[in-house]
Design a protein that fits this description.
Layout lengths: L9 E8 L3 E7 L5 E8 L3 H15 L5 E9 L28 H9 L3 E5 H11 L8 E7 L3 E7 L2 E2 L32 H5 L1 H8 L9 H22 L3 E5 L8 H13 L6 H4 L4 E3 L5 H30 L1
Parallel strand pairs: 1-4, 4-5, 6-9, 9-10
Antiparallel strand pairs: 1-2, 2-3, 6-7, 7-8
The structure holds zinc ion.
Zinc ion (ZN) binds next to helix 4.
Length: 316
């Protein structure tokens, strides 16, 4: 019989690594939080140190770590069958290129660690438990320090050779927009033109996005292009928006209109033409919630494997 609850002496850890901060939570078998902490993002070696110390200090006496879910910024190798699963590819973040936090934590914590892109993990949380509940296919788009998009279909994330990197799709520049790109790789991608750092550069030091309607309209146009691409490529039943920039008053509605304008008169699923197609995230830290679901899944898989081994041993 499959075990639905964690065994009482087993705890789970969820981790989200972001461009500016790292979040971690440890929960017991009933899902209750035992400890939660956050740190400024340093390099990969720092992250392994603080996370190992956090788990070591928070785990109750007699309990064992059943699984760890890691929701991570990328670009990452995510193929679970690859010996490089968890490997960080070329990134401008100092001290991360070539690191493998998944493998390092698995070794140090002696527990199964499963990794997903931060936005795929967020999509999992929003589809299973959040704003996307009741929809089979949910895309999650974050607009903050970076821009990223993930997809969850029937509880499972969408990956190919890697994970989607829709934050780097090229978007046509609006007439007169000559602001330099904030992306180190591209001159005209949506991250370069509409991420938090790109918008800060446009605003100058003392202005917020809602105080500058022109810049907000420009951001909405570029994000509308991204939304149209998500819709055309994945055809999700819902797009959930998260990240600090999307908290700007009125922005979601402007993005919805820009997306509809970009799609034009083309025939689309009726739900994607509705106002409710674009929703705000239910979770403040959807990536961390997704990481917890992943930790639960990997722990259940491992104990299922263990009981299958025990059963086959008993038959012999
Ligand atoms: Zn880019």
């Amino acid at each position: 019989v499959a075990q639905l609850m964690q065994p009482q002496n087993e705890v789970l850890a969820a981790i989200e690594t972001g461009g500016t901060k790292i979040l971690a939570r440890l929960v017991d078998g009933s899902g209750a939080t035992l400890a939660e902490d956050r740190w400024a993002t340093g390099d990969a070696a720092d992250a392994a140190d603080v996370l190992t110390a956090f788990v070591g200090a928070s785990i109750p006496r007699g309990a064992r770590l059943g699984g760890v879910g890691l929701a991570a910024f990328g670009p990452l190798v995510l193929d679970p069958l690859s010996p490089d699963c968890g490997l960080m590819l070329k990134t401008p973040k100092p001290g991360w290129t070539g690191s493998n936090l998944r493998a390092e934590l698995s070794r140090r914590l002696d527990a199964p660690v499963t990794v997903q892109s931060d936005v795929n993990a967020a999509a999992i949380a929003e589809q299973r438990l959040g704003a996307g509940r009741g929809h089979r296919s949910v895309a999650y788009v974050t607009v903050g320090t970076g821009i990223g998009a993930g997809l969850c279909v029937d509880g499972r994330p969408f990956c190919g050779a890697m994970h989607p990197e829709l934050g780097h799709i090229p978007v046509p520049r609006l007439p007169g927009d000559v602001s330099p790109s904030a992306c180190p790789f591209h001159t005209d991608c949506v991250t370069g033109l509409a991420s938090g750092p790109a918008l800060r550069r446009r605003l100058g030091a003392h202005s917020a996005l809602q105080d500058d309607p022109q810049t907000q309209a420009l951001a909405a146009a570029y994000l509308g292009d991204l939304a149209a691409t998500v819709m055309l490529a994945w055809s999700p039943q819902l797009i959930v928006w998260g990240g600090g920039v999307m908290a700007t008053k009125g922005l979601l509605e402007q993005v919805r209109r820009a997306c509809a304008a970009r799609i034009g008169e083309m025939g689309v699923a009726p739900e994607s033409a509705s106002r409710a197609f674009h929703a705000s995230a239910a979770f403040a830290h959807a990536g961390l919630e997704g990481a917890l679901l992943l930790a639960h899944d990997v722990s259940a898989q491992v104990s299922k494997g263990r009981s299958a081994c025990a059963a086959s041993g008993a038959r012999r």
